């Protein structure tokens, strides 16, 4: 069978002609990393390095004469290390050559041993060292060896194992390692002409093979003879994936799973899986056996004559036959095949030529191979495009459909995108009436669509919704036909509940792609109210959900929906009337949990509706509870809330809560806020209507209507009236008026002329704290009351008046004595004097106070003694010339005060001159008259400049704020500045050296 269709999988091209370079004919060949090493019949190694396009000839004969042909050549995957065995009449010799050496070195420890196979440790080998390698000999022995480039010889050679049960030569070897914890596990396979041996163990190679001395060796034996038994590993990413053994009866092959822990019957851990066997009889060449073979990822390359037959490893079918163009007539044909594990290339060689066998995407048709074998998972893993995957799905779907496994078929059909259309697949299920399978197909198809297919997703989801509803209804009908006791089906079957839960899960997953209006119409048309509510909740249509729960009487569920974070708060207000009537306790609790998120003012209509309904006497009033929570805990200031709470308190028979509410004054604690938030007029009208008189008294008092409060309180309780009368503290007249009202009421209440009643009325005066006197309340008594009944109180009042008169007389005497003392002090002031020392200086100019002449006169109105200037002397001892004092005070005072002093001084001088002109002057030039205006001006000037000593009074303290240098003293300040003296500039000579 040809699994192709995309051209040849393999091609053969000549690579080298005369590859042996005149050193005889080619007897053996090895390849690795673009390096080919040939062994010749004359004992030469010819190394072709295609990376550097170079070739080297290496003589292994060492000048010996005679026949010494190269038996086998082995090259590591990196192309650096080479081992070759030479056969000559004296025996066999083994050589080692490194890529950097000019000539190979003989390995003396292997002299006489014919090496047929070498296994390289691909995981450990380096450019400088082979690490441990395994050698197999013709005598059935297995050796371990290592060669270091620097040593120029083998590092060691250890015997590992020898076949004793059936002595055959080791024809080929392969080795793989795997890390297990901190140790290394070795996997070794060896072949003889009839057997394949497997060895595995942890530790060193020596330990692994030594363990088989006391346990059975695991091997596979096949009948038949073959000239050259070969064992190959296919290497991918430096790991062996599968193997093939060219045996006498066929090719034994299998997958390699290193690290597998499956034990075989022999006790060894078997790392071979999916074993298979290819019989040569399928080649159709009358029993001709291959001389050599190579192993690719998916094929066997078998050398039969001059042809290379390519057999698919999976299907066991020959897919191609390659003919090697062997031009030399003297050639004996193709000798063998070899592979380069690092590059994935294959080579064929004859006595003088090398041919390269290249692969061209050999796995491109493997999906079809696996599909033909019904290995669907493997076929899918090898598909390269969606069309190939659709082919695999189609085969699986058709097979399941034919077997009436419709659910499985629907799943596979849903994965297809190109081979069959959506409509064709849907019709397949509709034609046979498989609605459930069709629903499965639609759901799986949704899983395979991308987000860009929005329209298709919406249409398929809507169709699936209708199929779900149809399925649910069919189950209900089936239940109703079985039910005999009830006409209505009871949806309690497990299948019904399962499909309903599945449908709800589908709605939840598809809520974003389903058209909201269409889906709701579908659910409503099928009568699925619960699912309609569920879908509305998914689409956040909470109004529908809440309305449904209210209709069902499930207030708790409705409140749970409303309390969700993403539910708009308007729904709370909209459904508040219905919910509070349905379950007042739960509704109010939910409102209280919301705290400040709700506006209580918008809930007033719902609360009013609840209040209008009759309730049991002992029932907790939920509206009052919520309003108290708003007022006390949330500090609500809405007048509507406070008015409603007050109205509810007013309707209660017990007035205590109402009075407490009025006394609390919830607005009192706020800055610049009112004492209460309710409407006092409304509250008064309501309390009067409900006959809550004590509350009315409190409200009158809050409104400062104290007369009305006392008048109403007198109708309710005398003590209440007294308390209200005492509340007025700022207005004594009003307070007295209120107490007179109370007194009049008391007197009128104690009617009659009995002495005890009159005495009781008079005792009331003591409660007013002497605010009322007996004369204030006498007009309220009847005219026929005898004066004897008031004798004691009148006497007491007269005594009080007498005491007050005596007190006033004493105060008057004290005032008279004080006036006399003041007059005496004023007379003494006119005679007051002080003694001035002759040496007394003026506090400002520092001249003698008693200086005769020389000083400017401040005005003729000042009285002078001889030719001395007028002056001021203060009780503290400081003395100042009048002119000096005026100048000092003017400078240190404010501008307005200085202008006033100067104005007084000017007006006083003008009046002095005018008086002198009109009346003449005395001998000493001073005025002989003193007019009242002059004295007044002089007194004002004295008060302005000499009210206190400028050095000991406030003026000195104020001078602290004055600047040290006044603005007018800038010249004086400049005179004190130190200016640097100008110095002549000196020029220093400069000398320059050249």
From TrEMBL:
The keyword Ligase does not apply. It comes from Urochloa decumbens. CHCR repeats lie at residues 595-755. Belongs to the VPS18 family. It comes from the Eukaryota. The lineage of its organism: Eukaryota, Viridiplantae, Streptophyta, Embryophyta, Tracheophyta. PANTHER family: VACUOLAR PROTEIN SORTING-ASSOCIATED PROTEIN, VACUOLAR PROTEIN SORTING-ASSOCIATED PROTEIN 18 HOMOLOG. The keyword Iron does not apply. Residues 871-958 form the Pep3/Vps18 RING C-terminal domain. PROSITE patterns: CHCR (PS50236). It is found in: Endomembrane system. It is a peripheral membrane protein. GO terms for cellular component: endomembrane system. GO terms for biological process: intracellular protein transport. GO terms for molecular function: zinc ion binding. Residues 9-358 form the Pep3/Vps18 beta-propeller domain. Residues 755-825 form a coiled coil. This is Pep3/Vps18/deep orange domain-containing protein. SUPFAM superfamilies: RING/U-box. Its main location: membrane. Keywords: Coiled coil, Membrane, Metal-binding, Zinc, Zinc-finger. InterPro entries: CHCR, Clathrin_H-chain/VPS_repeat, Pep3/Vps18_beta-prop, Pep3/Vps18_RING_C.
């Amino acid at each position: 069978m040809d699994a192709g269709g995309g051209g040849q999988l393999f091609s053969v091209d000549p690579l080298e002609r005369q590859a042996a370079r005149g050193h005889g004919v080619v007897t053996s060949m090895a390849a690795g990393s673009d390096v080919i090493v040939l062994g010749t019949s004359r004992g030469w190694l010819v190394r072709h390095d295609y990376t550097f396009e170079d070739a080297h000839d290496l003589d292994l004969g060492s000048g010996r004469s005679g026949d010494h042909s190269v038996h086998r050549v082995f090259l590591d995957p990196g192309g650096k290390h080479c081992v070759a065995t030479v056969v000559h009449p004296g025996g066999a010799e083994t050589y080692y050559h490194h890529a950097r050496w000019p000539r190979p070195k003989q390995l003396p420890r292997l002299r006489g041993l014919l090496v047929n196979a070498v296994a390289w440790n691909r995981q450990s080998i380096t450019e400088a060292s082979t690490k441990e390698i395994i050698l197999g000999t013709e005598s059935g022995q297995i050796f371990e060896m290592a060669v270091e480039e620097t040593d120029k010889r083998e590092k060691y050679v250890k015997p590992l194992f020898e076949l004793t049960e059936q002595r055959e030569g080791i024809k080929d070897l392969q080795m793989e390692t795997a890390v297990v914890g901190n140790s290394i596990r070795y996997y070794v396979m060896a072949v003889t002409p009839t057997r394949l041996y497997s060895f595995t163990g942890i530790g060193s190679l020596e330990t692994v093979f030594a363990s088989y001395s006391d346990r059975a060796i695991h091997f596979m034996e096949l009948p038949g003879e073959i000239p050259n038994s070969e064992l190959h590993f296919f290497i991918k990413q430096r790991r062996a994936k599968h193997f093939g053994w060219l045996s006498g009866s066929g090719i034994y092959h299998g997958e390699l799973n290193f690290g597998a822990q499956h034990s075989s019957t022999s006790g060894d851990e078997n790392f071979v899986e999916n074993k298979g066997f290819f019989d040569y009889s399928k080649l159709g060449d009358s029993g001709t056996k291959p001389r050599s073979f190579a192993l690719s990822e998916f094929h066997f390359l078998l050398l039969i004559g001059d042809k290379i037959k390519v057999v698919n490893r999976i299907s066991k079918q020959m897919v191609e036959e390659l003919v090697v163009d062997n031009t030399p007539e003297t050639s004996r044909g193709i000798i063998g095949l070899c592979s380069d594990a690092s590059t994935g290339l294959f080579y064929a060689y004859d006595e003088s030529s090398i041919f390269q066998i290249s692969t061209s995407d050999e796995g491109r048709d493997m999906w079809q191979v696996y599909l033909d074998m019904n290995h669907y998972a493997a076929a899918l893993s090898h598909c390269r495009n969606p069309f190939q995957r659709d082919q695999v799905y189609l085969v699986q779907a058709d097979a399941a459909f034919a077997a009436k496994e419709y659910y499985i078929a629907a799943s596979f059909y849903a994965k297809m995108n190109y081979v069959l259309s959506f409509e064709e697949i849907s019709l397949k299920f509709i034609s046979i009436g498989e609605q459930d399978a069709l629903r499965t197909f639609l759901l799986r198809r949704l899983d395979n669509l991308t987000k860009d297919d929005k329209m298709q997703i919406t249409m398929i989801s809507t169709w699936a919704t209708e199929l779900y509803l149809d399925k649910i209804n069919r189950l209900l009908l089936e239940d109703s036909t079985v039910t005999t006791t009830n006409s209505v089906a009871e949806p309690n079957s497990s299948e019904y509940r399962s499909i309903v839960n599945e449908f709800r899960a589908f709605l939840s997953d598809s809520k974003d792609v389903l058209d909201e209006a269409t889906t709701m119409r579908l659910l409503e048309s099928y009568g699925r109210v619960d699912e309609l509510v569920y879908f509305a909740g998914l689409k956040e249509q909470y109004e529908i959900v809440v309305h449904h729960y209210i209709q069902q009487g499930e207030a708790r569920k409705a409140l749970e929906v409303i309390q969700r974070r993403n539910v708009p708060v308007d729904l709370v207000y909209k459904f508040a009337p219905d919910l509070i009537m349905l379950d007042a306790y739960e509704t109010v609790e939910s409102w209280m949990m919301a705290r400040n998120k709700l506006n209580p003012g918008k809930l007033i209509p719902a609360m009013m509706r609840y209040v209008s309904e009759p309730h049991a006497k002992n029932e907790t009033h939920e509206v009052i509870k919520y309003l108290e929570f708003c007022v006390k805990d949330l500090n609500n200031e809405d007048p509507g809330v406070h008015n409603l709470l007050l109205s509810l308190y007013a309707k209660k028979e017990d007035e205590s809560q109402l009075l407490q509410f009025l006394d609390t004054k919830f607005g009192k604690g706020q800055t610049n806020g009112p004492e209460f938030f309710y409407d006092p007029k409304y509250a008064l009208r309501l309390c009067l209507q409900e006959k809550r008189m004590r509350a009315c008294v409190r409200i009158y008092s809050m409104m400062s209507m104290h007369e009305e409060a006392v008048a109403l309180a007198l109708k309710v309780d005398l003590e209440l009236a007294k308390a209200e009368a005492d509340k007025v503290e700022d207005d004594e007249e009003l307070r007295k008026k209120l107490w007179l009202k109370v007194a009049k009421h008391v007197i009128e209440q104690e009617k009659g002329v009995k002495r005890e009643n009159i005495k009781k009325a008079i005792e009331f005066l003591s409660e007013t704290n002497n605010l009322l006197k007996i004369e204030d309340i006498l007009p309220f008594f009847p005219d026929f009351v005898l004066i004897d009944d008031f004798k004691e109180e009148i006497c007491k009042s007269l005594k009080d008046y007498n005491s007050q008169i005596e007190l006033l007389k004493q105060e008057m005497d004290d005032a008279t004595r004080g006036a006399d003392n003041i007059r005496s002090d004023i007379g003494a002031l006119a005679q007051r004097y002080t003694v001035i020392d002759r040496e007394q200086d003026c506090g400002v100019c520092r001249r003698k106070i008693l200086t005769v002449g020389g000083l400017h006169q401040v005005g003729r109105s000042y009285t002078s003694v001889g030719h001395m200037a007028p002056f001021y002397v203060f009780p503290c001892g400081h003395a100042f010339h009048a002119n000096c004092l005026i100048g000092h005070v003017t400078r240190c005072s404010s501008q307005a005060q200085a202008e006033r002093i100067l104005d007084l001084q000017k007006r006083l001088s003008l009046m002095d001159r005018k008086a002198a002109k009109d009346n003449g002057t005395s001998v000493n030039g001073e005025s002989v008259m003193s007019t009242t205006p002059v004295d007044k001006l002089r007194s004002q000037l004295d008060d302005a400049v000499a009210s206190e000593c400028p050095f000991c009074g406030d003026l000195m303290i104020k001078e602290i704020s004055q600047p040290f240098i006044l603005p007018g003293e800038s010249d004086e300040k400049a005179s004190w500045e130190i200016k640097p003296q100008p110095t002549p500039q000196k020029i220093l000579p400069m000398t320059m050296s050249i």
